[in-house]
Amino acid sequence: MSEFKVLIVGGSVAGLTLAHCLEKLDIRYEILEKHDEIAPQVGASVGIMPNGALILDQLGLFDDIESVIEPLEMAKIRYPDGFYFKSEYPLTMRAYFGYPISFLERQKFLSILYSKLHHKDRVHTGQKVLSVRDCGSHAVMKTADTEYTGHLVVGADGVHSIVRSELWKLANKFKAGTFQEDEKNALKVEYACIYGISTRVPGVKDGVQLSLISRGVTIHIFNGTNCKVFWFVIVRLEKNDVGSDRPRYDDMHARKICDSLQREKVDADLTFGDVWVNCDIFKMTPLEEGLYERWHFGRLFCIGDAVHKLTPNLGQGANLAIEDAAALANALCKANLGEAMLEAASMERLTRWVKWKKTILDVIPSCVLFVRNLPLQHHQNITMLSEHVLDLGGVWPKIWLAGGIIAAVAFIRHFDYEKKELQFKWLLPGQHHLVERIPNSVIAKALSWQRSRASNPDDAFFREFSGEFLQSFDEEVQAIGAQRQLFRVPFFSHAADVTASSGRIAVPCFPMALKVIARLTTKSLFGAPLCRDGKFLELCCHFGSAVPRDAAILRCFPEFSRRFIAPFMAAPRGVHDLQTAVCGEIKARRQRDKNPLKDLLDYSMKWVEEHPENGWEDCHIAEMMSNTVFAALHTSSQLVVHVIFEIATRPDYLAPLREEIKKCFAEHGDGTKAAIDKMYKMDSFIKETQRCNPLDASALARLVLKPYTFTNGLHVPAGCFIFTPNSPLFEDEQYYSNPQVFDGMRFARMREHESTRAASPFTATSEHSMHFGMGRHACPGRFMVSDEVKLVLVHLLTHFDFAIENNGPRPRNVAFGKFMLPDMGAKIWLRRLACDGGDCASGNGDDSCA
Questions:
Q1: 1-68+103-181+293-373 carries CATH number 3.40.50.12780
Q2: Is pTM, for the whole model, over 0.90?
């Protein structure tokens, strides 16, 4: 055998996670699962904790998981005498680690893990392993009808692991007494758990954990999405069992216990009976607890429940299995296969378990315990650095799989330049980390909701959104054209009338793009009529320009004087005026009898009303919305300008892009969201434009709070900003062929190959494309940006010939520190295409405007 191969026994959480890790490292694998399907519905749910979420995020899986979970925000712990207390430990954990605590159906979780594998052909179901042989240079596994050969066998097959049994057998055959009977009986059973899923239980609120702690029994209830309720009943057993002498339960055992608990109150107006009567599926299982001291022998290695079951009452089983998979993958990446490597991997995990057992905290009341578990961090340099780094984006540093994901440090800026302050500390209240503000996850949820609306053909949102664009574009061009009577073009079926026109007009590109993007952004955030209010739009545009400009000016003054100078600058006044206007809009909406959800402001107001315990007020909503305006306007406008400059100076792309528009409109309907989404060539052109014209040379900013020296001697003093590289990756031949050449169809071709398809869309993020960030905290508004830029480009290509003013070359970009901006003063010529019957997508491609 020439190619190294890992044989994974078990196609559940541990096995599938390990497969994802191995794909990142380009290591071949085969998964053998004894059941006939990967994700059977057995009534189980799974808890995703921060330590597991961090690794899933690095593997590019957490976004899919987050879309089907309801994060916990509060716990209500109750006792039989009626006493209860509330705990915000879920929010505390999220604040510490950047990831929520949440639950979802185990079947759905496994389906996500499986569906995201690139090599599903390597997953074999209905293959129960009967025996394993260690042949020295390789290992052989035998099922009923097939033999599988590999270099390493990993037992991810749970508590009743066949690989663990074969490991013991081979070890004792090699040397009698290697594994003693008492070591084989490491797992003990003191408790049993009944887990189930109910539907539409009245009184169970989103984001709230309900727990009842009684003598000999504990009940936990968690709300999920789609009206699902996940619940657990943990009972203490009269007899403790060890080893293989574990009890077996059927539905009668579970029903008897649950029936006896129906009157138990889990909340003021909710009994367990309310949950039990709405139960869809349930199962009872023993809760094994314990730790095996040795996890490997020869070419056999076990992970997950096969070798440890610690704190199962906290839902950590799946998360610790995920950690095991990452640790083993790191070991495979760092060392050649051998006893030393396997020993190192198992010792790393054993050390972790010792620390785990020592970090249990007492929480009031003293009988309630939870584990304060720091996320697993395998890369030694980054592990130590994480203790000294503050994440400017509101999340703690991520530790990447060694060799699988880049964790480079670049673009170090010293403390003397930034003077211990975030850039906009005195200009943009709410942006520095000491100020309380509504979590970023709220606007992310709102944008996700709006994205779903845009994709729904029965929802009028996208038609209204595109109509707003047409009206805005027309108004801006007419205003620029002054006395010239211009026209309205029938891009969408719901557009207005047409009047004939000819000739060309010189249009300042950035001012027009800024006003159009401001109109679209405020349409998304605030809806009509506010998005058409000229004064309000001017506030938004001025606000976005004033903050970075005034920040540059303010840095010229001594630090002690900045707090006194800032109030006299334009930016703080702009912030105040904008937030005052938003607060006025909120107040007006509260006075209406009905407030249907039409825009992101409506969604945010509803969220605040549903979470009164957080104490958020209208000013907090206004702050969040103004920050969103600041983040969206100039970045999107600059991308639009770059795209226009590129297409105006690359006439070879006009014909294929216009043909694609015509084809997609014919197949999916004129101007529909479905048609826009199918324009892969246009999507590729936009993404290539972004690659060649990155706004920021770096990404994922971190501020170093304490000095640190890497093992290679690189010293990072306190006060430095460190970043991951952005533009250097875009220029690296390792990731992009001929990176110095603009290739507008580069990413369209990537869609043709399964291995690169997922990274090809404009909105996709990866370790090689971090313009929108990456993973859990990637920009949630990137999908709206995609729609905005495509609307502009489709409209221009469909109805105009255009060129740089005077048929000049592409305007040069302007460098500003580590930022690269388009020429803000450059103009383009626009001339309406001569077309028959409004079918302008078939234009001849002449963009000379001569």
A1: no
A2: no
